[in-house]
Design brief:
Blueprint lengths: L6 E3 L1 H13 L6 E8 L5 E8 L7 E5 L2 E5 L4 H4 L2 E7 L4 E6 L3 E4 L6 E3 L7 H5 L1
Parallel strand pairs: 1-6, 2-5
Antiparallel strand pairs: 2-3, 4-5, 6-7, 8-9
Length: about 120
C-alpha cells in the first residue's frame, strides 16, 4: 500500500468534491478530512474547507482533485474508500472504512479501531 492510499476516492466522490469546490466562495479551497470525538458511537468523520495545507497533513491527489487528511486521523482512515451516494431520500459522503468496528443507528457516528503500528516502509513507499 502506498502513502497515497490512506483514502481512495470513488468517481462519484471525485465528481462531488470538484463540484463543491467550484461552488464554494473560494476556488482555492481544499477539502480536509478528519476524525472527531462525538456521537453515540464515539467518533464522527469531519470535513472542512481549508486554504493551507499543514506540514503534517497527508495530501491525496486523485483525478485532479486534492484533499488533505488530518494527521491524527491517518491511523483511523488507512484503507478507507470515500464515496458519494444519492438515493431517493438522502445524499452524502459515505466512508467505507475497514477499521470501523460499529456504527450508531443514526449513521452519524462510528467506532473505529486505529492500526496500532504501521510498517514505516508502508508509509514511505
Amino acid at each position: 500500500m502506498s502513502k497515497s492510499n490512506v483514502i481512495t476516492l470513488t468517481p462519484n466522490a471525485v465528481k462531488r468534491i470538484r463540484y463543491l469546490i467550484e461552488k464554494s466562495e473560494n476556488k482555492e479551497n481544499i477539502l480536509r478530512v478528519g476524525i472527531e470525538k462525538g456521537g453515540c458511537a464515539g467518533l464522527t468523520y469531519s470535513m472542512d474547507y481549508v486554504l493551507d495545507i499543514d506540514k503534517d497533513d497527508e495530501v491525496i491527489d486523485q483525478d485532479n482533485v486534492k484533499i488533505v487528511i488530518d494527521p491524527k486521523a491517518i491511523l483511523y482512515l488507512l484503507g478507507t474508500e470515500m464515496d458519494y451516494v444519492e438515493d431517493k431520500f438522502s445524499s452524502g459522503f459515505k466512508f467505507n472504512n475497514p477499521n470501523e468496528v460499529s456504527a450508531c443507528g443514526c449513521g452519524e457516528s462510528v467506532e473505529i479501531t486505529p492500526l496500532e503500528s504501521i510498517d514505516s516502509n508502508v508509509l514511505n513507499s
